[in-house]
Design brief:
Blueprint (H helix, E strand, L loop, with lengths): L1 H7 L5 E6 L2 E14 L6 E8 L2 E8 L2 E9 L8 H25 L5 E6 L4 H15 L12
Antiparallel strand pairs: 1-2, 2-5, 2-6, 3-4, 4-5
Length: 145
Amino acid sequence: MFKLYSLAREFARDLLFEINGDVVTLSIKGILLANTSSTSSNFSIFEVSENEFILAIQTSGYVVYLGIEAEEEIEEEVYPSLVRIIISEVMPIINNLVQVAKELSYKGADILLDDNMSSSLREAMYNLLLKHKKGKSPYEQVEVA
């Protein structure tokens, strides 16, 4: 388990991107790892505030939640480009983290990194953690599909 925590430290860094001529600085502040019954790959975004969001990347039976803070407000139309760039940057680390979790036969959910998350981001991450521990879906359906 210690190896998972040490790998999660690799995420604690700032990422600088240029999108539409603007420099965007993002900081990965939190990591939550949870196993899941699905082996498909996908991603989701949970907006926490105008400058905070959680990017969930699911792969190989695990979901990795990245708690991310930006220096400034993130416009909704920037998310597709931003997510594409973030995923390309962090996938090698995520693949390594998931590989180690598989080797350890890791089952469950845990916050592996809390690098001075804001209170709102911390609350959102711990809400996701509780949902996984209770076996509930992290997604809230507000309308009938």
